[in-house]
Amino acid sequence: MIASRTPWIAVAGCTLLTLPTPGLAIDSTSLEFGAGDHTKMVRAGLQWKWQRQWWKSNGTHLGGYWDASLAQWRGNRFQDVKGNTQNITSLGITPVFRFQRDSMKGFYAEAGIGIHYLSERYDNGNRQLSTRFQFGDLLGIGYVFQNNLDVGIRLQHFSNGGYRQPNDGVNFAFVRVSYGF
């Protein structure tokens, strides 16, 4: 049993070591609305920008931020029965890489892979996740306005990476609104 949990312990430990240190100011906050696979989700998040920038060229760079999130999922086909609902709370932390202008305004593209803990195992619409710990892969595009309002869309896939079966995965499409301080 301990050996089967070793990968999760290693991932959690590495993530905790790279979290922002207490006392650092929050850089932005976000609210997201999404749907997919007979499930709706609302998610709130806090973000901390990285100070590091890579591949600086022509007024652009690759940067990023930590995204800590709390979400509520509501499935409408619990155990594949139409009308049965399943409510799940998700807590997650994701390092997000963002390709953007040096001014931090205008269009951007982003991607990340984080870890999420679900309050219960997902069983909705003929899709099941056998574990509460899930990886969340995301791709997004958006635009940051002059007043630091950030509006974007994201695609996100949740899966345990094949760690345990069943692992059908869950996909969402999101609209994301964020405000930078």
From TrEMBL:
The keyword Hydrolase applies. Keywords: Cell outer membrane, Hydrolase, Membrane, Signal. Residues 1-25 form the signal peptide. One of its GO terms (cellular component) is cell outer membrane. It catalyses: a 3-(acyloxy)acyl derivative of bacterial toxin + H2O = a 3-hydroxyacyl derivative of bacterial toxin + a fatty acid + H(+). InterPro entries: Lipid-A_deacylase-rel, OMP/PagP_B-barrel. It is found in: Cell outer membrane. Its EC number is 3.1.1.77. It comes from the Bacteria. Pfam families: PagL. It is a multi-pass membrane protein. Its main location: membrane. The record marks N160 as: Critical for activity. GO terms for molecular function: acyloxyacyl hydrolase activity. The keyword Hydrolase applies. Belongs to the PagL family. Homodimer. Has lipid A 3-O-deacylase activity. Hydrolyzes the ester bond at the 3 position of lipid A, a bioactive component of lipopolysaccharide (LPS), thereby releasing the primary fatty acyl moiety. This is Lipid A deacylase. It comes from Noviherbaspirillum cavernae.
